[in-house]
Amino acid sequence: MKPPILFIVIPCYNEQEALPITAKRLTELTDDMIARSIIAPESRIVLVDDGSRDATWSVITSLHGADARFEGVKLAHNAGHMNALWAGMTLSAERCDCVITIDADLQDDVNAMYGFLEAFQKGADVVSGVRASRKTDTWFKRTTAQGFYKVMGKLGVEMVYNHADYRLLSKRALEALLSFGEVNMFLRGMVPMLGFKTAQVTYERGARVAGESKYPLKKMIAFAMEGITSLSNKPIRYVLLLGALCALLGMAMAIYVIISLVRGHTVAGWASLMMSVWLLGGLQLMALGLIGEYVGKIYMETKRRPKFILEEHLK
Which of 21, 90, 243, 293 has its CA at a distance of 20 to 30 angstroms from the CA of residue 210? Predict the structure, then answer.
């Protein structure tokens, strides 16, 4: 069988320190794969500069000049991690047989790509890289991550447990994914919707090769909210159920007030009244905020803005 043309897509945001190390590892990896006829010599490594503020684009330009297998994609502004991945996949779709997405920090083990391609050759259209453990995470990050996957499952969102955005997509899976039209994207939940044959490859996640994490707590929370509200409307239904429960509690409170009035104990109800006001007020604000989150997403979808704006493409 003819070896496939593989495109490795890497989103880069302020990765000037990590890129030289990343490029060296991927050069050695692809050299070995080409020598062993695992991938075709036409395979490429696509580095997507997501509006970096450092010398990331200069590094990418130098890599492209030194080795033609490195392609550079420069976005006109910071479009976000998901959109940077989307840009790289979009520009690779017509020229590849399969694509692998991986972060520039190489915390994900690049050697797992051998397993990805083996599963692809056996017929899998989607191969997910799954962490074997979370022993390198802090207790807080491990607990919140596991809680996130459980919550998403309860909300009806199909996701691969302990899987981020390290995956292989065949050409037809990639084309099917790119046909999705939504602006608010959460790839970890969108890819399982494709329905093609899937496989998993486990690996141990390591430390960043250089630089700092681009996902502090604030961004992690925003990412979780994006995933929940982009793929499930169950939170809105839960708010409806909560409202019904509050209405029942209100009816019980009304009966209590009437009984207190008859018995002449109206002053004694002051504490319960204040608690009810604060409780219902807080629930109403939470409900309005959640509804506003969905309305905001509808607003963004109706604009139909492009997911990314391309400034330069080195190929």
Answer: 90
First to last CA, the chain: 27
Q: Note if the pTM is more than 0.85.
A: no
| Residues 194, 297 within the same domain | no
Does 1 reside within a domain?
Answer: no
Q: How many helices (H) and strands (E) does the chain have?
A: 10, 8
What one-letter code names the amino acid at 88?
A: G
- In order of 38, 64, 200, 245, 252, the CA distances from 239 in angstroms are 52, 52, 36, 10, 20
- 191 falls within a domain: yes
The verdict on 226 and 241 lying in the same domain is no
Beta strands 163-170 and 310-314, pairing class: unpaired
Strands (E), 132-186: 163-170
Which domain range does residue 284 map to? 234-303
